[in-house]
From TrEMBL:
PROSITE patterns (UniProt xref): MR_MLE_1
PANTHER family tied to this protein: D-GALACTONATE DEHYDRATASE-RELATED (PTHR48080), STARVATION-SENSING PROTEIN RSPA (PTHR48080:SF6)
Organism: Jiangella alkaliphila
Protein name per Swiss-Prot or TrEMBL: D-mannonate dehydratase
Sample GO molecular function, one term: mannonate dehydratase activity
NCBIfam families named among the record's database cross-references: ManoateDhtManD, PRK15072.1
Top-level taxon of origin: Bacteria
Native organism taxonomy: Bacteria, Bacillati, Actinomycetota, Actinomycetes, Jiangellales
Residue span(s) of domain Mandelate racemase/muconate lactonizing enzyme C-terminal: 130-268
């Protein structure tokens, strides 16, 4: 393996859109990288096809750090989700190639396993408590040992995190399970009222603890909708129910805003699924304003950059909680599992199962047992792409929803 011969971008939409970079070397090895950016997929396709792929041909695939620095610094325009998803795809494909060339599962090249498996959480939801309880029981039966709790809010028609199958309002395009993006020509509109949400949620967690007991790790996603003082109030109100974490309590671009949240609550905080570099975490980490880093390998410059963020976070007792919705492709999920198995400060892994058609496009070797994931021991990432199968499902335009308050104002989704 001395040079990269081809760099192809494969777009497929079996259950939803995925963008995959496939690198092939002079000796016929292939490496895969995930470049899926939910709702803006084709921007990354163009970035890769038109600007990055021509630079990769003839390069030494072993030079992962040098290639990362070259792509980051030579573009002049730094950071941003499109750039960092494109760099991530190249980086993960190079790690996949290096591990395949070595004949080892990727986690071995990252230092070897630090644990036997990765605790994963799933998404339970319901419009009301009986539906939510059924969903929690269903997840326990599927083997989950940590569960995110999202519910409807009285007075609101469409609320983030409630499964599409439970929602009568979802009319635009097709969605499956909890996937929030919908196929169609315009984003789905949802409604929001933070005061109604703040009044409702503590009672939901009181009921869930009453039904399922004190031990089950419970998580909740605020999805960027609160101000810092509202988030502080919610965190304090949820303290009796011992959350594993409260996620994205504020939009967090203003990192200093988390100081205010921390002054008011000891509920653990997780942030960062929309971040894409270490700079987005600088204040949050050095001032210990969060407990979990939510970044995905796919959106944060790949294994090379996320590893640096997590090593930085480890010095402050902050752990990983990598983003793992269905828009992280099986390639991106595999990268997360190898990284999570190797690092010392692993916390928890989000895990939403992909649909059956997706599993036919991407052949995977990970295992799921007793609530824990393991990437498997095949050389590389352990994922292969069936290009014939992928070719059956052309790209379909899709958007994430957006929010309006009751007076019509656009709000954070
Ligand atoms: Mg989230």
């Amino acid at each position: 393996m001395t040079s990269i011969e081809t760099a192809e971008v494969v777009v497929t939409s079996p259950d939803r859109n995925f963008v995959t970079l496939r690198l092939t070397t002079d000796d016929g090895l292939t490496g895969l990288g995930d470049a899926t950016l939910n709702g803006r997929e084709l921007a990354v396709v163009s970035y890769l096809r038109d600007h990055v792929a021509p630079l990769l041909i003839g390069r030494d695939p072993h030079r992962i750090e040098d290639t990362w620095q070259f792509l980051y610094r030579s573009a002049y325009w730094r950071r941003g989700p499109v750039t960092m998803a494109a760099i991530a795809a190249v980086d993960v494909a190079l790690w996949d190639l290096k591990a395949r060339a070595a004949g080892m599962p990727l986690y071995q090249l990252l230092g070897g396993a630090s644990r036997t498996g990765l605790l994963a959480y799933g998404h339970a939801s319901g419009r009301d408590l009986p539906e939510l309880f059924d969903s929690v029981r269903d997840h326990l039966e599927q083997g989950y040992r940590a569960i995110r709790i999202q519910t409807g809010v009285p007075g609101l028609k469409a609320v983030y995190g409630v499964a599409a199958t439970q929602r009568a309002d979802v009319t635009v395009g097709d969605r499956y399970d909890y996937e929030p993006a919908s196929r169609g020509v315009f984003p789905q509109e949802e409604d929001w009222d933070t005061r109604a949400y703040l009044r409702h949620l503590p009672g939901v967690f009181e009921a869930v603890r009453g039904e399922f007991g004190p031990e089950l790790p419970l998580l909740h996603d605020g999805h960027h909708r609160m101000t810092p003082i509202q988030a502080g109030r919610l965190g304090k109100a949820l303290e009796p129910y011992d959350l594993f974490w409260l996620e994205d309590c504020t939009p967090a671009e203003n990192q200093q805003g988390l100081r205010l949240v921390r002054q008011h609550t000891t509920t653990p905080l997780a942030i960062g699924e929309v971040f894409n570099t270490v700079w987005d975490y600088q204040t949050l980490v050095t001032e210990q304003l969060i407990d979990y880093v939510r970044s995905a390998v796919t959106h944060t410059g790949g294994i090379t950059h996320l590893r640096k963020i997590l090593d930085f976070a480890a010095q402050y007792q902050i752990r990983s909680g990598m983003h793992g919705p269905t828009d992280i492709s099986p390639v991106g999920m595999a990268a997360a599992l190898h990284l999570g198995l190797a690092i010392h400060n692993f916390g928890i892994q989000e895990y939403m199962k992909h649909g059956a058609r997706t599993d036919e496009v991407f052949h995977q070797t990970f295992t799921w047992k007793d609530g824990r994931l393991h990437p498997g021991d095949e050389p590389g990432l352990g994922v292969t792409l069936d290009t014939d199968e992928a070719g059956k499902y052309p790209y379909q335009r899709a958007y994430l929803p957006y929010n309006r308050l009751t007076d019509g104002t656009v709000h954070d989704w």
